[in-house]
Specification:
globular, 37% helix, lyase, 3-dehydroquinate dehydratase activity, alpha/beta, 3-dehydroquinate dehydratase, 5 strands, Rossmann fold, DHquinase_II_CS, DHquinase_II, 5-stranded parallel sheet, single chain
């Protein structure tokens, strides 16, 4: 059974400490536990990187090895055409995920390149919303089977 890739971009390693009024107190380790518990028997490949290059390499790995991608690209959402191009090569479902509601934030956060490829976009559910994203991905994969 191919895994679901849960990919996290820059500064998400600081969850629980970084701007808790926006991102809450849940840590990235707790997010990983939530994802694994929600996925049940479906394997999860969970990564965080502050590097655009590494994030693209992980998408390339998912192209070859993964069933679906849940991606919180953080700031790369709004800047990376290279990430969009990599995601466009992935044939499975892609969920773009944001902890905060990016549309309630400053205008710079309103234009997502990743949304051009994403099959679904989730925003504003908080860190515990990753469970909702994993559940949605499981449904999307089952619908494709």
């Amino acid at each position: 059974m191919k895994p679901i890739y849960v990919l996290n971009g820059p500064n998400l390693n600081r969850l629980g400490k970084r701007e808790p009024s926006i991102y809450g107190a849940t840590t990235l380790d707790e997010v990983e536990q939530i994802c694994r518990a929600t996925a049940g028997d479906r394997p999860i490949v969970f990564h965080q990187t502050n590097s655009e290059e590494k994030l693209i390499d992980l998408v390339h790995e998912a192209i070859d090895e993964g069933a679906g991608i849940i991606i919180n690209p953080a700031a790369f959402t709004f800047t990376s055409l290279a990430l969009l191009d990599a995601l466009k090569m992935f044939e499975g479902p892609v969920i773009e995920f944001h902890i905060s509601n990016i549309h309630k934030r400053e205008p710079i956060y309103h234009r997502s390149y990743v949304s051009i490829r994403a099959d679904a976009v989730m925003a504003g559910l908080g860190a515990r919303g990753y469970a909702t994203a994993v559940t949605a991905m499981l449904t999307m994969l089952a619908d494709r089977a």
